[in-house]
Queue: 4 jobs
Job 1
Amino acid sequence: MTVTYDSVGKGTELPPRTYRVTRLDLVKYAGASGDFNIIHWNERVARSVGLPNVIAHGMYTMAQAGRFVTEWAGGDPGAVADFGVRFSAMVPVPDDDAGAAVEFSGKVLEKLEGNRVTVDIVARADGTKVLTRARATVRLP
Amino acid sequence: MTVTYDSVGKGTELPPRTYRVTRLDLVKYAGASGDFNIIHWNERVARSVGLPNVIAHGMYTMAQAGRFVTEWAGGDPGAVADFGVRFSAMVPVPDDDAGAAVEFSGKVLEKLEGNRVTVDIVARADGTKVLTRARATVRLP
């Protein structure tokens, strides 16, 4: 079921979704992004520099937020016209198959012309907001 | 100093070289090769399945052997016409900056026509042969 511009209004909530991120995802993302910072794949070093665990690349979490909005808007990544976030907390990723859960929710802030809406996104890991001021402008069918 | 076809004979030894392989190399190789097998980057799982540590991708060690021959032959990877190895032991990679050392040595087995020679390569990690029957046919200047 795809939302349409006509079916949403200010305050319409996006159905929440949880995406997981595992150590394997981070190893793959390191290769794909070229960001091989050791805190994203080596727990010994991550803890030695004061981190709670290996942490996810911030851009990975941002990408998940983009996926959240894109899926809601019908699946076309090209529908996202504007997208910005502030990274407010880390996503620690435990060394197991389940990894970390990042919960996404959001609501429509404003309806714009041209079938576009502005969406406010909230991302939480373990109850903590990991993205703030996460906003996307997206074109709806 | 590049070797030349005229300057080598059967039994000529390649100057030995040691190449290191670190955990970071394996994370990068995973992304580059698409081989994300967990035994190449997760020590907990590697040990739980009976391995001595995270181990290097066999193809990574083979690639190092290829580099060894290529550098000896003047640097052109296209000079290697034939290349085969048998993987005889694992290369465990410790979780530190130094990683594992793989020592390469070799000698000319045979001179062929067309400025080509067949080279026998030995690769050792911690004194153990990790590649056997490692042979390359390479064209020399």
Job 2
Amino acid sequence: MSVNLRIPGPTPCPEDVLEACGRQMINHRGPEFAEMIARQTSKLQKLCQTKHDFYIMTTSGTGVMEAAIVNTLSPGDKVLNVSVGVFGDRFGQIAEAYGAKVTSLKGEWGKGADPEEVARALEADRELKAVLVTHNETSTGVTNKLGEIAKAIRRVRPDILILVDAISSLGAIALPIDEWDLDVVVTASQKGWMVPPALGFVVFGPRAWQAYEKAAMPRFYFDVGKAKDYLQRGQTAWTPAVSVFFGLELALDKLEAEGIENIFARHHRVAEVARQGVKSLGLELFSDESVASDTVSAVKVPEGVDGVKLVKVMREEHGVVLAGGQTTLAGKIFRIGHLGWVFEADVQAVIDALRVALPKLGY
Amino acid sequence: MSVNLRIPGPTPCPEDVLEACGRQMINHRGPEFAEMIARQTSKLQKLCQTKHDFYIMTTSGTGVMEAAIVNTLSPGDKVLNVSVGVFGDRFGQIAEAYGAKVTSLKGEWGKGADPEEVARALEADRELKAVLVTHNETSTGVTNKLGEIAKAIRRVRPDILILVDAISSLGAIALPIDEWDLDVVVTASQKGWMVPPALGFVVFGPRAWQAYEKAAMPRFYFDVGKAKDYLQRGQTAWTPAVSVFFGLELALDKLEAEGIENIFARHHRVAEVARQGVKSLGLELFSDESVASDTVSAVKVPEGVDGVKLVKVMREEHGVVLAGGQTTLAGKIFRIGHLGWVFEADVQAVIDALRVALPKLGY
């Protein structure tokens, strides 16, 4: 039985990308690596529609979220955390772990954050130094209206730092970083980028560099200043995940050839297959339609069906690997990942399998 | 021209290990990954001759050095950093970055640390909370006599924390962690383990866990408490470098089949080929013979020869990739890596190439 890996990362990779990941090692401080990282950094900047600095670190998405915080803030700094789910909460937890004073603006799960509420929170406390915000909340299948949120933030506080978790959106959903005037944006290789996990990407703008000069949170491994110094020599500060760099080389060629607008359009089309398919089965999305994500769909487990068992049956009997719900959503939703190297047929196959599996589970 | 990658990591990997690294992605929170990480953790503990807890993190060696520190110490804690090279210095820099008060005991580069000097430093300041020490100093080709150092430390301070950078030694040079009563020991996948970079390993003993309860340095990504919670469920806290886990599966089988004592013996034999070969060319080791490392040989660039050019010629004309000297040793030494998947012939080929290259460079 072939496996249809439909979790929101790690996502399946094209065969030739995987083959490249199996290449023999090279010197990570030699000329071949230097050419590779220079080329990839430049291609990634273009695909991310940004002129900001761009750093590749060997870590997961959580690691680059930590990088966003520790490179721009000091202990005691007040920050506003706009959270609509598990990963939004995590962003605030990281800031707290490093001594920031976090005001949480928690939105209802399944809905997007309200730009005007964010603006009011900023008006209520003029000492806030930064806003932490999730672009695409993987735990609830919600894409925040980040353009509107950023506009509301800038209206009230033109110079506040905006730190964005775009782990499951960048490269898959439109996110014009410079146009929206975002300061730090992070993502990770195993999401939209069609390569295995191990690399985190950090977009770091001029306002973030100004903040870096004063930021007193301790940092070493995730220090963007060190990343900058080494990148100038064609290196990463610490030994990188060379294999994934090899894969990224091919993946970026494919993404470039497709074109970023076409990639966004493909993700939207595939997501529509998921949304319409779910509805055709009489199921409901967990998220509001108006903010339903183009990279992951969260679906309510229907009354009377065991959500954990559903995920198990889908895997064992249909070869479809879905994600369950996290924390309080465990058993209550299941999630279909549709980002990266994904096409309509991959998601249609999930719907077809659900159509067979659900009745056997009492639906 | 085939390439003979002879830097002290990333080290070459066996073909089937590389092929495994090219496997398609799986769910890192699913049953297959759970079985894999449980099996690998147990095998690694055996190969590392330890009953201490063992955690695999997606990062480089520097990342797990940071993990050793932030999980056991608090800002303001006094620590003794025993350094005999670049990586020893780095260990102290990480501790300083997180607010430790670091007393540096700097030994002459090329020599090992003196156990009695370490003991005296501990006697001189009874408030020291931890000793940071490098087992194998990659920058100078020195293996510290860690057993004697640990014994001297325990004589003076039976309960002080001993944090060990064994990045380029564990799994290649004898390091009986429990017998030597070491508290935290770290290494990384691209060194002795015959797999690509991306994974750091953390050995964490009972005294370290006691320290963890009080340790107030901020941490999130590198939190071993989170690693422990997730490992109990067969997971890593954050999305891991799945590809390298696939490779590690095969590499551990090979290492087990060879047997740890045979692996140590092989590294010693291969290192002898390097040391005798270098001498046969009339060259000198940078390190004292008594502490010359079995995983990396540092060799003095002979008078009149351009060390940077030598490394270039070896690479371009002979396909031999050597490492140069770091920081103040740049151009003054070159280094031959001989750890991991390495045999006598690999190092003999380096000597043979040097025999041709050196005379052309004025030697």
Job 3
Amino acid sequence: MTGSGLVSRSLSKVRELVVNAAQLGRETVAKDPEHIRRQLQECAEGRGGEVSTRLRAARLAETYLHLDDAQRRGFLRMIAHEFGPDPAQVANAHEAYQAAVGTPAQWDAEARLRAAMRSRRLRILTQFNAIPQGVKFLVDLRADLLRYLADDPALKPLDRELETRLSAWFDVGFLELQRITWNSPAALLEKLVGYEAVHEIQSWQDLKNRLDSDRRCYAFFHPRMPLEPLIFVQVALLEDLADDVQRLLDIEAPLADTTKATTAIFYSISATQPGLRGVSFGNFLLKRVIDDLKRDFPRLHVFATLSPIPGLARWARRHPDALAAAVTPADAKRLAAAGVAADDFATDGVGALLDRLDGGAWAADAALAAALQDVLLRLAARYLLEARRDERPTDAVARFHLGNGARVERLNWLADTSPKGFAQSWGLMVNYLYDPERIEANVEAFASEGRIDASTAVRRLARR
Amino acid sequence: MTGSGLVSRSLSKVRELVVNAAQLGRETVAKDPEHIRRQLQECAEGRGGEVSTRLRAARLAETYLHLDDAQRRGFLRMIAHEFGPDPAQVANAHEAYQAAVGTPAQWDAEARLRAAMRSRRLRILTQFNAIPQGVKFLVDLRADLLRYLADDPALKPLDRELETRLSAWFDVGFLELQRITWNSPAALLEKLVGYEAVHEIQSWQDLKNRLDSDRRCYAFFHPRMPLEPLIFVQVALLEDLADDVQRLLDIEAPLADTTKATTAIFYSISATQPGLRGVSFGNFLLKRVIDDLKRDFPRLHVFATLSPIPGLARWARRHPDALAAAVTPADAKRLAAAGVAADDFATDGVGALLDRLDGGAWAADAALAAALQDVLLRLAARYLLEARRDERPTDAVARFHLGNGARVERLNWLADTSPKGFAQSWGLMVNYLYDPERIEANVEAFASEGRIDASTAVRRLARR
Amino acid sequence: MTGSGLVSRSLSKVRELVVNAAQLGRETVAKDPEHIRRQLQECAEGRGGEVSTRLRAARLAETYLHLDDAQRRGFLRMIAHEFGPDPAQVANAHEAYQAAVGTPAQWDAEARLRAAMRSRRLRILTQFNAIPQGVKFLVDLRADLLRYLADDPALKPLDRELETRLSAWFDVGFLELQRITWNSPAALLEKLVGYEAVHEIQSWQDLKNRLDSDRRCYAFFHPRMPLEPLIFVQVALLEDLADDVQRLLDIEAPLADTTKATTAIFYSISATQPGLRGVSFGNFLLKRVIDDLKRDFPRLHVFATLSPIPGLARWARRHPDALAAAVTPADAKRLAAAGVAADDFATDGVGALLDRLDGGAWAADAALAAALQDVLLRLAARYLLEARRDERPTDAVARFHLGNGARVERLNWLADTSPKGFAQSWGLMVNYLYDPERIEANVEAFASEGRIDASTAVRRLARR
Amino acid sequence: MTGSGLVSRSLSKVRELVVNAAQLGRETVAKDPEHIRRQLQECAEGRGGEVSTRLRAARLAETYLHLDDAQRRGFLRMIAHEFGPDPAQVANAHEAYQAAVGTPAQWDAEARLRAAMRSRRLRILTQFNAIPQGVKFLVDLRADLLRYLADDPALKPLDRELETRLSAWFDVGFLELQRITWNSPAALLEKLVGYEAVHEIQSWQDLKNRLDSDRRCYAFFHPRMPLEPLIFVQVALLEDLADDVQRLLDIEAPLADTTKATTAIFYSISATQPGLRGVSFGNFLLKRVIDDLKRDFPRLHVFATLSPIPGLARWARRHPDALAAAVTPADAKRLAAAGVAADDFATDGVGALLDRLDGGAWAADAALAAALQDVLLRLAARYLLEARRDERPTDAVARFHLGNGARVERLNWLADTSPKGFAQSWGLMVNYLYDPERIEANVEAFASEGRIDASTAVRRLARR
């Protein structure tokens, strides 16, 4: 009985898709711009009743799916340029509005100005929602749009309108938190494999291990995008703060005893829909996951991540002085003993040491590794606490967690010895700690003053 | 097993509600305007992270629920007046926009103007979505707003912004069509009883009869308003076009044999949420219901309503000439024989006949009823085909069905002999026919030219 | 979305029923005994493959549903008499078995004897399971059988075979505990109204009250009898041990605050299927309900019933000496003052007092009621602790709860002042207490020695 | 939302398991026979109420799971030998029964004899049902029992009693037909991989291919063994009768267009539970699958298998004469030309040719293969139509399908060129056709007279 409701529901979805595709397919897909323009106009005008408008929009959406990248860009440009508000009408409405400010007529005038600003672009796009899986279609369409945007700023108002609409649809109140387990549909699990962005899932066996009884996996879903996780987090239940991601990913490792677990480690968080950029729900995810975990495991009281430091090595290359400054005289001595000349980490020679750090081979040289440990940890601490871009932390993962109220708790040496781990941060990882007592204050301090919470140990490391 | 998923899901909802109410309840509800203004400002600014913003908004929403009508109006006025866009910023952005029109900078300028127009009102309102059943809360809040709007046009921009947001949320692509049966949750069925707007449901027995095997009931639901139908339609499966609603509502009537059914009669359609005024989904409902019925009963080929004519008697009072014009010399003779003087239906004396038609007593006088039949049917046909307000049919039900592509198929004499039926249309009812072949053309003709489709018989009746 | 799975599943059930009924209906139902005998033989032989055997059995089951009571009895007698084991074959197999006892051949011989005993009766009956809702059909058929059994002992082996089979099917491991709430299907709630055996449910309003947030209702279901509760219990969550059932049933009473609840009162337990006599699951129900309640309300620690004493008045009539013995000299004095002569409760005159106790009018006479209180409580205590039939408590409700490990905790004066309450026990009710610490020991002591656990107060009352 | 009900249900199952295991685990598992005997006696007597009996049984079942094979056999022997009926009591009851035959007392006496035969073995075993997943436990226990049975006939009565009980529990009326798709739980799909008995599933990719839109997979489930298929069938939807299983299994093959499908090929049927031997439901599976397919694909009208002939090569070894007889003079000539001497297929030299047929290398020799084709097809036709064991077809797959009413429709040359296919039937496969018009008659003819239905072509092949 278990799966039947699920199966039959998604089947009827599939059937509907097939039926509609067949209906739509009766006509050949017309990719001719003039034809598309005419269709867009019909959509924008909504002639012939809503039902037939939707059907027409559905055909147009199907057309879009058959276009190549250049054609899609043209399609979106056409919408952006030709279906915007009419500047003359806007000017009139604005004049009336300003004239009415302070009088009882102001409110009506505001509504009229708003109406004049309302573009037909969005009307067209949201009608595409009529195709099966229309929400997913629009999210993917926005992903296209974002790619084109860099070269084509004229798409910006269209993007903003679409972002606003997607923000409305993906309001966190509409999202559903679900646990994902080995009993979840294979079609969903297959997507996790594709979407996992932090520690690649190697096989179904690897996936099964990540869903075992000492793990938890949660995702947010939208009611109209079934089997499509928006963001998901993988959690390990442990007896202490994890300092080594290999141990977590090892499919041969024994099961942990969850009755003793005190610590939940979020070791992978992946957002899956590029088309939802700017629509935030990550912080709600962690909050709700923590609530759920606490209910199931009352002994849990430490909630932390074991996170990569994706921008560290790249940043070090750009700031040779930082590495130079991180080497104390004592370090320099040890480095010299391990065969690293002072020139190699001098500001203008820093490339030499960084080149040596490429790949993980150096880690096998115990003396060298020992000599580097303090230097690199110090450098990482300074990077996390001090490196800024546009007044926010340079590191994308740090931005996410610090913005959500976490603190930089601990740096871990040789914690991710995969090629990717060595490449991005010489194997270093960091624990961000979510302390329910401090989250609120941290969010506020970070948002208003850019203040970053960090443990004494990390703070001491960073100190000069 | 059947109901368990359902039950447990809604239970956890209830539990969540209780928990949150308890959290919120810790503070006494502060109804003081200054306090509310401060809270609104905090909401609008979103300080302290999204999670705490939501929590604050939830408290404010709870406050709203404890306000009386006058206080609510004040609350909404405060939002409308104090959290709108800043006219000066709008003026600046508009100036830059107009200056940029036609240049590559136009698009960016448009986005900036749009940003300047974005008010904090909506930001505040949508954060209320954070309370359990937040969507229903906002729908009900808009119902309040609509009531206040008549006296307080300054609320209009707030209403428009909220309507826009609700239209986004209640996009028909998000709605779920569900059959409602005697196996549906009692809590849902209880709501049908309360919401039924056409033919009052007298008892659970009456309701059960309307859900029997020769009936169907369908409703649209929103995923975040479970157990809350948005609009529902009651269908009877028959062998011919129903001409008598009493027969349909009679709980003693024998079950129809659905294997012989050729005709689906939509005998009651009720929209339930005043707060969704302007958000349309009724036409999609009928389309999807027809699709579903066809799949289950392949012999069905007639889809029609048996509808009230709610505005007929009221309209006749206001147009005494129409009644006078509907009486042919032959009618006049029959009326005279039945004791109705010619003066009683003369244009300036029409009140006399209309007064006699009050209540249904006249229907018991066979001679009088016979003499009136042609007159009233003719009057009704002209009312439906000709009476207009703002270029659209005067009758609200006619507006709905004709706008959806139906045609006026047949008028039925003594079809609703309830007090309400006599009062609004002297017992007359009308069948609107949904002919899948003609719907599209009808929608188009009605929308563009106001053309109304009608059967030959009705058209002949209306002819002068 | 919530209810859709539910609805569609049960619909497909209904559709299947209709389809099958139509298939079956092609032939007229033949009620002629010779025809039935032939059909039974075909069923018993299982000719033509299992699929067609099942179809044939389904036809026969449909036939049964169209028979009147006398015909059904004839049908069942035919199965009982003509499809039993063959005594001669049994004799042969038995002889071989006894000869083999103690030798290695014993086991095979036992299997052969068992095969010879296997009757075709059950084979016929269980094939009836092929009709939709076949399990319910067999349960109802056994209810018929039990009614006929009293007059027709020849049906006994058939009854025993069917009971054995039903016991296998209704093994408690297969039953599902479900909470019933106001969100449960109306079709299910309607059945509760019909099945409630202790305190009649007066209206949907009354039912809704019993499902409110300070109440719980649980039932056992069988996976093949959806929407058909087998046994259900109604629970009130209170702050003390209830002593008055009117208070619990009062639909005007305010909601209790469940966060303060310490006590769960089982105030109504109804078994619904007479055809499941002898199949026990009541004790599992209470155990699982207690577990579920504890999980949801950790402060709960008292689990008790507020139960009727259905056999008390009837027993008193049959044992006039018991009443006489319950009147102490002090009572006699008070009774005399209230107008009850000593003769009225003398062993041979006891009818007089009992006659006065008919109806509840006496309770309005404060002096009389006060004089009777001790007497009747004493009598009730002795009845519960001492009255035996076949070595088990005379009172059916006492048998159930004491057999499940409860103890007699408290007697309550004027606790059920309904006509039924006065008629069966002069308004007295009893609390049976389920003390998790004592249940096991009580069950054992009761089963092995017939020992009854009771509170000191009740024990003192009963003492002579 | 989709999977959540599913997930939470199975989670609560898991949690229950954990909790109970913890409860049980408090005591060390005692494997000492005397201790076990005592526990069995307590179970059989059911002391201390049903709840504690169940708990005790659950402990015993847990014990069983920790025993090794020899200990399990001892455990089952103990139950079989020591908890059977008492021969003396049986003798008494039997004597009374025979004395009563023909008198009104017969029926009561039969019931008493039946009671005397009722053993405590089954009582013990069914109480094991109390552990979570108790049904699966008993099915697995019977699988053990069947393994031991060959060497230990004394276990036979226990096996028969358990089979009878499992037959009652697995009555086809209780089974649920479910479609399995790529949306089914991964935990279920993983089991398919393990259980597939006909064409091994190589990878998740292979599995996904078998669940694609031109395939169907159905299984029977028991409500108390969720995620545990009892038997499953894989179906391909095609435009003609498949003659080549490689084509079906090729994961690179293009998707078939199911709108054109006329033919459903059951290309793999696997029963999964050895412990359910003797409990039949395979024929119901095919009937219900055919019904379901017809509803979804109205153009389907051919329902057939593409089946292995698992016993062909083995049978040919044992019947050298059959091969010799299958070679016509024309064949002999062709074989000689291909290098096969007449001696190699003479009755006493047949091993030589059969040895050459080992492995599939011969198939690459076009001349040899051509020379062998008629011979082997003829041999296979005779094997299927004529080879008998205990009056039923020697071939297990033939027994299954012919018993279900299929006919031998077509033999296919080089249809399964896997090593297994060559080994068991030199690459030959057979289509069994399920013709709804003939199934009933075929079942009857096969059951009563052993008559096998076959197409003219196959019949002609077999003719001598």
Job 4
Amino acid sequence: MSTSNTLELIEFRQQCQQRVDQRLGAALDAEIVSVTLLEAMRYACLGGGKRIRPVLAYASALAVGGELAAADNAAAAIELIHSYSLVHDDLPAMDDDDLRRGKPTVHKAFDEATAILVGDALQSLAFQILSTEADALGANNRLAMVQLLSQAAGATGMVGGQSLDFEAVGVKLSIQQLEQMHSLKTGALIRCAVLLGGMSCGSSSNSQMSALASYADNIGLAFQVQDDILDVVGDTSQLGKPQGSDSDKNKPTYVSLLGPDKAKALANSLAEKAIAALQGFPTSADPLRELAAFVVSRLH
Amino acid sequence: MSTSNTLELIEFRQQCQQRVDQRLGAALDAEIVSVTLLEAMRYACLGGGKRIRPVLAYASALAVGGELAAADNAAAAIELIHSYSLVHDDLPAMDDDDLRRGKPTVHKAFDEATAILVGDALQSLAFQILSTEADALGANNRLAMVQLLSQAAGATGMVGGQSLDFEAVGVKLSIQQLEQMHSLKTGALIRCAVLLGGMSCGSSSNSQMSALASYADNIGLAFQVQDDILDVVGDTSQLGKPQGSDSDKNKPTYVSLLGPDKAKALANSLAEKAIAALQGFPTSADPLRELAAFVVSRLH
């Protein structure tokens, strides 16, 4: 990635972050009667985070010839699912983390009951946004997006992967088992972000969607391998969570399985495969291409 | 309610329970990779419960001239949302209950992390069923059902009410505040069950939907008042949870606010209003009428 591409990507990411923050801020408004719940939902969602999934959704919309605005609802919905999963993940009964994005986690800043309810409400809101907001898309497309998000979020996707992750504590997994776990736990939602972005302009072809799916599968796995690397080599202030918090819990990681060098080589090769999947796309897919490189070069 | 009506209602309820159990059993199948998650989801959802919300959805479909089969997806989706809320409600950080429907709660039978994930996955599955299953309804209707369910389930509905309930512990509420809390906490989902049932045959008129909404608002509140009465006078073996578990927690209830006699009179008057709202409906609305009487006469 050249310096000028890096600068352009930073600008693009900032633009996407602003768009999704605005959309989320509007959704988390005064219609919510419980003051505590509204405050805690805003705390969990606004003003922080890499917004990598929304950025992917926006970049994917551009790649198929759409405009950024078309992906606002998809970006917000996917970030709501991601945010809820973090709130629940951090709970004492789950990963028991006190810090997230450099701030106290929701159950620390509020309490456990509120954190459980916040996660539950954020998930509902994701489906509300996809189903409620008036946009140029017809009902068939929007229903297909609800379907995709529900599959990616639930027992056949993210939550299924989280459960496999718990089942794996203290167990020596094969690389195939680790890949299956991560393809659900983090991959499903990243894949969904890319696909929802592609669907959001309503005119993407089947071959474009297949290419996006292939891009997304590779980038999703690359993202997880890089996360495992950062868990070992990153420092707490940059990560926003204690360094080594996953390896401490005796969870299998790509680094523990492959060693740091081979893990790094795997991440890079997955990013290259992701970029190769976009071969037929015009320059409007450049942000997606640059995001693939970013995912494996990021430091937190 | 005459004896023959009672017998017919028991039969109708059994028929509905079988239908929704079949639909839920099919949705909770082997496609879910995590063995623990699948087992715990089935434990949480199958083989128990009054299924009052599905029964209302089916009865509502009949009332507007539809067939039972049309409401299968609506009934299953609404029961999934209800089941997830029970699993999360029972958690130690929430109501801390060890028994539900006479069985150990999910976090007792499994563990807390699994119970959190089970609730999360059941919520996703509700939206997946509404958006995925092929039925005679068009995309516009199904999208409207997703919209309604997401609003009823989340911060503007059930979860918002749960949060208000927590905010109310140890606080002396006015009857209006108590009503607002319950209209969200339990009313929103009961209303949604009735409306989804009415929408599920795709041909209900606006005036029919308004009448169903009025029926549902009254029956929803009646349900809660009766719950408060049973919490004081019911016994643990029939309730499936420790008697007095709500009043012990210093939560405001209709009985603590009005006394048992006035609470009972309120429940009966709400059931009568619900039945009155169905004045224009043919005899196919009889199950809905009988359910209104059942809700305030039930012993658990």
